[in-house]
Specification:
By secondary structure, this protein is mostly helical. Helices cover about 60% and strands about 5% of the residues. Its main location: membrane.
């Protein structure tokens, strides 16, 4: 063998196993972090939706009654639309 091939060395088995173990731990930790963040975002969106619904329901009110209680109904012949004012 030439001197160049003798000098080239790869990683030893313990180094490779340690690197793989660290990689698995890192990926697992990042997966758990991502899952926790996703659950937090879902909970935040649900809370925001509840506040939006509460605001919307608190704003509901009866429409103002027409002047002197008069109501008129008109139907157009072309579009068959009904307009109640």
């Amino acid at each position: 063998m030439s001197n160049a091939l003798k000098r080239q060395r790869g990683f030893s088995l313990p180094e490779t196993v340690l690197a793989m173990a660290l990689m698995v731990l890192t990926v697992t930790a990042l997966g758990g972090y991502q899952r926790g963040m996703a659950q937090g975002i879902v909970q935040l969106n649900q809370t925001r939706q509840l506040w939006r619904d509460a605001w919307r329901y608190s704003q509901l009110s009866a429409p103002p009654s027409p002047a002197r209680g008069q109501v008129s109904r008109m139907q157009t012949s072309r579009q068959r639309c009904v307009s109640i004012t």
